[in-house]
Amino acid sequence: MARTELTALFLMFVSSVLGAITTVLVAGCQPPVSMVLPASVVSAAAIAPDVVAESAPKASATNSSKITIDEFVKPETILNEGKEWPQWGGTRVRNNVPNVKNLPEVWDIGKFDRRTGDWDNTKAENLRWYAELGSQTYGNPVVAGGKVFVGTNNGAGYLARYPSKVDLGCLLAFDQKTGDFLWQHSSEKLITGRVHDWPLQGICCAPLVEGERLWFVTSRGEVRCLDTEGFLDNEDDGVVQNEPARVADLMDSGEGSEFEESLGQLNDGKLTDALRTVLADAGSEAGDDISIETLAPNKSWKAKGTFGGVERELAIKQIGPRISIFKSLGVNDKQDADVIWVFNMMDELGVSQHNMCSCSVTTYGDLLFVNTSNGLDESHINLPAPEAPSFICMNKNTGEVLWTDQSPGNNILHGQWSSPSIEVLGGVPQVMFCGGNGILYSFRADAGKDGKPELLWQFDCNPKTSKWVLGGEGTRNNLIATPVAYDGLVYIAVGQDPEHGEGEGHLWCIDPTKRGDVSPQLAVKMEGNQRVPIEHKRIQAVEPEKGEAAIDNPNSAVVWHYSLADQNDDGEIDFEEEMHRSCGTVAIKDDVLYIADFSGLLHCLDAKGTPDGMAIVHFTYDMFAQSWGSPLIADGKVYIGDEDGDVCVFEFGADNKEPIEEINMGSSVYSTPVAADETIFISTKDKLFAIGKSDE
Question: Which residue in 375, 668, 639 sits closest to 496, CA to CA?
Answer without folding.
Answer: 375
